[in-house]
Specification:
Elements: E1 12-17, E2 19-20, E3 32-33, H1 39-52, E4 61-66, H2 75-81, E5 90-95, H3 102-110, E6 115-121, H4 125-131, H5 137-148, E7 153-160, H6 167-180, E8 184-189, H7 197-200, H8 208-223, E9 228-231, E10 234-236, H9 243-249, E11 255-257, E12 262-265, E13 268-272, H10 276-280, E14 285-290, H11 293-304, E15 311-312, H12 313-320, H13 324-327, H14 329-337, E16 341-343, E17 347-350, H15 352-356, H16 358-365
Parallel strand pairs: 1-4, 1-11, 2-3, 4-5, 5-6, 6-7, 7-8
Antiparallel strand pairs: 8-10, 9-10, 12-13, 13-14, 15-17, 16-17
Helix pairs in contact: 6-8
């Protein structure tokens, strides 16, 4: 059967802004320091790539990430995006706490940005220094108050799973995060990636049992305060889930432009170049992968199982022309026996324990 995803309109666009004023100790995203002289040239190339996509309809989600989009003047880009925005579009920009001011927020409001993802990572000043962040708790509190005067839908990030963050401190962190009164909290266990300052300094990842203890504390605290864990690492108030990221987790197609950005169009996954000079010369695409039916099933299972709602069995059959419960009967029985997954009326979902052991589930399924 022909894969149904090829018939879908692409409703989401990701845009990557690689510039940063300061490189955080843990970050391994495509980035380079501001004041390189590339900013205007990069923006021009970005607008060329946007035009080349030939998008001729309004989008459901637009997400500008980085890097640090808020440290660069993006007004020409924001203006170019206006034809793709409707009253229902979720339009997110990532921002650094120290970049937030009335002028910036006025521009965002003018160009219909309606969601801010603020990279705070921690509230405790000592922990912020450990992570290489330059703002303070006071900065966060004041800037969140300012943002709310312009934009109400706010996400904040929380990093856990590092030795300086004791459970006692984590409880204090969570109390401070709840006091911010925002709609969405994304949580990330600290991972040490090659090429980062933490890697070069020889820092090691925390023991997995300690990481699990910290996440259990996060889960129990947030879910007892009106946040729902709708994806493995993300908590939101009802109706405030990140629509853009759900596009990824549901394995739906999306456009991606900018340095290192990924796209999923038709039967192909694309990866843009990480070479700035190549990008400026409009040699955008570095990799192109044709997705087979079996590979697509793997992507679909791997991504959808991150969601609390799991796999919709009817959707799976419509997309792939086969019954998942029949295909994976033996594997699912084994996983059910170990209480890692559940089969409800029309869905296949992980249990809480299963969500913590997703790699084991995927290994069994594949």
């Amino acid at each position: 059967m022909k894969n149904q995803k090829n018939l879908k309109t692409i409703n989401s666009l990701y845009i990557h802004i690689p510039f940063c004023e300061h490189i955080c100790f843990y970050c391994d995203f495509p980035k380079l320091l501001l004041r390189t002289g590339y900013e205007q040239k990069y923006l021009n190339a970005l607008l060329s790539e946007l035009k080349a996509q030939k998008i001729n309809h309004e989008l459901k989600t637009i997400y500008i990430g980085g890097g640090t989009p808020s440290c660069v003047s993006l007004e020409p880009l924001l203006k170019a995006l206006q034809p793709y925005i409707s009253k229902d579009t979720e339009f997110t920009i990532e921002a650094n706490v120290l970049n937030i001011n009335k002028d910036l927020l006025t521009i965002y409001k003018k160009y219909r940005v309606n969601r801010i993802s603020l990279g705070i990572q921690a509230m405790n000043d000592s922990l912020l220094k450990v992570l290489g962040r330059r703002h303070t708790k006071k900065d966060v509190v004041n800037k969140i108050k300012l943002i709310k005067q312009y934009i109400h839908n706010i996400n904040v990030d929380l990093i856990y799973g590092f030795k300086e963050l004791t459970n006692k401190l984590l409880k204090e962190e969570l109390k401070d995060y709840l006091a911010l009164d925002v709609n969405h909290i994304s949580t990330y266990s600290l991972e040490i990636h090659q090429g980062t300052k933490f890697y070069n300094d020889g820092r090691k990842e925390l023991d997995s049992s300690l990481v699990r203890d910290q996440f259990d504390l996060i889960y129990n605290t947030l879910t007892s305060h009106d946040y729902t864990r709708y994806e493995i690492s993300n908590f939101a108030r009802i109706g405030c889930e990140a629509k853009h990221n759900i596009t990824y987790w549901k394995d739906e197609p999306y456009y991606g432009i900018g340095l290192g950005a990924a796209s999923y169009i038709g039967n192909y996954r694309y990866k843009n170049t990480l070479n700035m000079l190549a990008y400026l010369n409009k040699k955008f695409i570095a990799e192109k992968e044709k997705i087979s039916l079996e590979d697509d099933k793997k992507y679909y299972l791997m991504l959808n199982l991150r969601l609390a709602e799991g796999i919709n069995l009817k959707d799976y059959k419509k997309r792939f022309g086969s019954d998942l419960l029949t295909e994976k009967k033996n594997e699912l029985e084994k996983l059910k026996k170990h209480k890692l997954v559940k089969i409800n009326y029309n869905s296949f979902v992980t249990t809480y324990e299963g969500s913590m052991l997703l790699d084991i589930i995927l290994k069994e399924l594949f």
